[in-house]
């Protein structure tokens, strides 16, 4: 195989098996010798914030002697970003080698079950085999979608589980209500495990408390009263959390304080289990942590900010952050979303902040029709232009935008990654 063949295999929606259980994944892992059983995990689920929380935890563990694997999705620029050890992407050579080793077992499973595995299932297997053979001390494992039936959920009880947020996304697969989605996310709670979650109220809180009780798991929810913002700007934030008086993070947005607080509690749980995680490693790790494409400023004149907001909760947070950081400002929004999203409702959440919308499809097959969306926005009274491809957006930024213009890119991590790669190359 070459790397192009690897990418086609693990980044294409090839599966046709029903997502009713994890039997297909268990069979694949058994044929590979169950490498997941040789590893220890921090398992992370949530509608938004999984990636940044994983980045915070990985950075904290990077200040320890633990060899740390990191599995996340999606990627921004290269698919190798999804599998890392000690913050370094898997090499093309290793990616090819481990894919070739997994492929023969994939073929056996597909022949036995008469159904194709999904690409994410194959990618998960590759990552787990890689981490096991590289003898990682800890693996930070991010779910793809949901939790209960996610391919990562074939692991045994993790050292710690974390659930970052509950919002409406992937409803065709997870359910149409926050409660239904919460039950799927709670599926990563396992027997006698430690679970750290965002702050939840009402029925959502009851779902997690009930699941934790059923599994005999210890549940800790972040209390917003324990988090206090000291200062916030596009350069980063300073905040207090419980006994930590002056914590610094580079991540922008109030919601990142919840993600950082979850990471702190995960680190404290590991320390209580005997891992050598110190207060200093927590402080330094948080300050060093970086996760591209999340309220990230790429350029100064004009100001270009990219954000991976692609669902209702994410766009609401983006709107809130822009209003806080840039009071009384108007923005040029570059937006591209998948056509199966409720994109018009989401776009209108920032409508009153917009001086101009530039629409562009993030994917030729799955993305929305940019011209139709621009036309619909004009019909609603907004100034909007469509762009056929991201190179036209780059041309606008470099040649037409005013120096004092603030341009915000959102709607799809694939769009953010594409523009980011072109702007900072």
From TrEMBL:
It comes from the Bacteria. One of its GO terms (molecular function) is ligase activity. InterPro entries: Folylpolyglutamate_synth, Folylpolyglutamate_synth_CS, Mur-like_cat_sf, Mur_ligase_C, Mur_ligase_C_dom_sf, Mur_ligase_cen. The keyword Cytoplasm does not apply. The keyword Transferase does not apply. It catalyses: (6S)-5,6,7,8-tetrahydrofolyl-(gamma-L-Glu)(n) + L-glutamate + ATP = (6S)-5,6,7,8-tetrahydrofolyl-(gamma-L-Glu)(n+1) + ADP + phosphate + H(+). It is an enzyme of class 6 (ligase). Residues 293-412 form the Mur ligase C-terminal domain. Its EC number is 6.3.2.17. Keywords: ATP-binding, Ligase, Magnesium, Metal-binding, Nucleotide-binding. Residues 44-266 form the Mur ligase central domain. Belongs to the folylpolyglutamate synthase family. This is tetrahydrofolate synthase. It comes from Marinilactibacillus psychrotolerans.
């Amino acid at each position: 195989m070459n790397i192009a063949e690897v990418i086609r295999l693990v980044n294409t929606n090839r599966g046709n098996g029903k997502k009713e259980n994890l039997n297909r994944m268990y069979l694949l892992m058994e044929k590979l010798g169950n490498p997941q059983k040789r590893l220890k995990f921090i398992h992370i689920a949530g509608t938004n914030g999984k990636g940044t929380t994983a980045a915070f935890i990985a950075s904290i563990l990077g200040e320890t002697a633990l060899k740390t694997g990191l599995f996340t999705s999606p990627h921004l620029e290269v698919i190798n970003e999804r599998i890392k050890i000690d913050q370094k992407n898997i090499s093309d050579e290793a990616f090819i080698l481990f894919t070739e080793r997994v492929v023969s077992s994939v073929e056996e499973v597909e022949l036995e079950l008469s159904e194709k595995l999904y690409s994410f299932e194959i990618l998960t297997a590759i990552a787990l085999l890689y981490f096991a053979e590289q003898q990682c001390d800890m693996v930070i494992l991010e779910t793809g979608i949901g939790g209960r039936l996610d391919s990562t959920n074939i692991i045994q009880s993790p050292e710690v589980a974390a659930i970052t947020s509950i919002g409406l996304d992937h409803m065709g697969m997870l359910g149409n209500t926050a409660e239904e989605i919460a039950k799927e996310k709670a599926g990563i709670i396992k027997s006698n495990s430690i679970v750290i979650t965002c702050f939840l109220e009402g029925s959502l809180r009851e779902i997690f408390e009930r699941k934790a009780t059923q599994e005999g798991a210890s549940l800790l929810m972040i209390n917003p009263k324990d988090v206090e913002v000291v200062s916030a700007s596009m350069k980063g934030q300073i905040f207090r959390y419980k006994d930590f008086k002056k914590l610094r993070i580079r991540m922008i947005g109030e919601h990142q304080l919840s993600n950082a607080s979850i990471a702190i509690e995960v680190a404290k749980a590991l320390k209580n289990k005997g891992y050598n995680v110190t207060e200093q490693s927590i402080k330094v790790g948080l300050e060093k942590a970086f996760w591209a494409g999340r309220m990230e400023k790429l350029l100064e004149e004009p100001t270009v900010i990219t954000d991976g907001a692609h669902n209702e909760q994410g766009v609401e947070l983006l709107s809130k952050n822009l209003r806080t950081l840039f009071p009384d400002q108007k923005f040029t929004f570059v937006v591209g979303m998948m056509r199966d999203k409720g994109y018009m409702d989401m776009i209108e959440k920032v409508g009153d902040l917009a001086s101009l919308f530039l629409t562009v499809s993030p994917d030729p097959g799955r993305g929305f029709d940019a011209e139709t969306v621009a036309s619909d926005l004009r019909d609603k009274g907004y100034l909007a232009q469509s762009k056929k491809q991201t190179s036209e957006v780059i041309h606008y930024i470099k040649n037409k935008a005013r120096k004092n213009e603030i341009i915000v890119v959102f709607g799809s991590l694939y769009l953010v990654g594409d523009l980011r790669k072109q702007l900072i190359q």
